[in-house]
Amino acid sequence: MTFNALMGTSPNGDELPRAGATARLHTVLSGHWSSDALLRLRLRRWPDPAEPHPAGHEVVALDDGGYAHTVDTGTGFVTVQFTPEPDSAPHALEHSDPPTPRWRAAVLTESVRPDDPRPAAVARALAEALRSEGAGFSEAEVATLWEAMPLLRRYATEDSALADWALIFRDHYVENSVGFLLAAERAGFAPQWIYALDKGDKTLRRDRVHGWFLSRGYRSATLDNSVVNGTATDEEVRRAREVGSDVDAFIRAAHAEGRRVLMVDDGGIIALGSAHERLVTEQPDAALELTVSGLKRISAATDMRLPVLNMARSEVKTHLAYNEIADSCVRRLRAIVPGAKFVGRRVLSLGFGTLGARVARALRAIGCRVTVVDTDPLALVRAAEEGFDTSRSAHEALRHIRPFLIIGTTGEDALTEADLPLLPDGVLLAGFATRDFSLLSERRVATTASDVPGVGVRYTLPGRRSAVLLGDGRSLNLFTYEGIPNRGYDAYRAATLVTAKHLCRSAADLAPGIHLGVVDEVVREAGLFDAYYDTYLADTAQPAEGGVEGGVEGGVEGGVEGGGDAHE
Questions:
Q1: What is the C-alpha separation between 96 and 83, in angstroms, rounded?
Q2: 336/36 Cα distance (integer angstroms)
Q3: Which domain of life is it from (predicted)?
């Protein structure tokens, strides 16, 4: 019997059971399930040893190399049918050799009495267990990812100062975040004292990142960026407060054990709201802030009593990371509208800061005619002297040009209600900071919205016109996309690790408040820029093993045992 003989396909592509008139398909999953997980089922063991083991297990081999595992619950049958998937493109940024095998698992029930919910409950529980186990990265995928970040490997050396620290890491769930926490483990943070928080963007492999974090023993949850920006629904706020309470409990537990807590944060969650209304009310002992928006929140909070190192305005982020972020923005933009013509067409770029200037230059290099808007006169001077057309406001610019595309990189409301009547019909809106087009995404004006699957949302405009907001209204370079290549963020993640290690060693000697010069000094002293140049840019480039903080020996077993290897 083959998997295809048991399963059919509906007109819309959904698999349907053929195995008996009473069979019901609950779930079809794809995953890389490890040999251990599959072996547990082959040996007729339930995935969770803590759960009662139903009697009456049966394993049947399928002709296509798969097998069916059936459990008799006493009131019906639950079957998991496994079949190997054909070879496909890698499900990660890096390709592993040999490729990571993937399986398809179908969970079905059969011969169930209509009034008995138990088999369906067993099927749901089994599907959830398989989903959790199959989501994470395989050992081979993690080893390949680790090899792709040689600078991070270089600095992932053990530091005894981290032994009594806990780590809270809040950032986008992308592959280079896996690399960073691997390095953090290698440097000395215990896995059970790592709490990872996703910012909530729909990054392409966020489920795989979450699954891998859980498999390592980290805590992992989502603290949605929309809560930070004040755009969340009541239900999202409720869930965020639950997570915030759990983070508070994590900090209290660490302190109770004599541990100090470091927060590496992308958004200033520790300073959101007044002290008694914050999502996270317990203060960590030190923080590393990665974003300008987070620095603004922390600066405005009068009760912050901890040292905060400023990665957002550091040399490594300004001169290296933002080049990669801008590149990811333009690549995602071209990919999400592959049928759009760019060469020769007018683009309105709102914001000419660190990111906006780079995106504007990249679009001009493609052949776009770019008009720049910025409220800062010095930014306008810079743009004009680089040869861009400029304007002081979007409203003024839209009175004179008809862009097919408007870019937002301001992090603030980039369009006002008065601008909407001036937008050309069918204009594309691409925001690379969450709030740029929030006038539409938050429905603060009377419009009709309709989804454009895989592309964005179309909004009606005055005069029977429309505009398409690309993505989901958040940073477009993170919408169903991995964002930045692992090698592209290697230097920035390595600098973050070097700075985090220094902060844990010196937190007691640093005054409360935001420190910038410390980051640049520590990164330069570590020799990171030399290592970056030698590894990636020099004609005689060599892998970045060894170096200031020592090399990495051994391979990666289960992710890290053998060795240490946009973004608002």
A1: 21
A2: 38
A3: Bacteria
- pTM of the complete model: 0.85
The token pair at 401 is 């040009």
Residues 6+ apart with CB under 8 A from 273: 279
What are the phi and psi torsion angles at 28 (to 5°)? Answer: -120, 125
Q: Which residue has the higher pLDDT, 10 or 28?
A: 28
What's the CA gap between 137 and 152, in Å, rounded? 19
H/E element holding 519? helix 517-525
> Rounded to 10 degrees, what is the CA torsion of 323, 327, 329, 333?
160
Burial 459-492 (b: 16+ CB within 10 A, else e): bebeeeeebbbbbbbbbbbbbbbbbbbbbbbbbb
Report pLDDT digits (tens) over 218-257: 999 998 867 766 667 788 888 988 999 999 999 999 999 9
As a whole number of angstroms, the distance between CA 509 and CA 464 comes to: 63
Provide φ and ψ at 376, rounded to 5°: -90, 115
What pLDDT digit, counting tens, does each position of 107-134 carry? 888 887 777 888 888 888 888 888 877 7
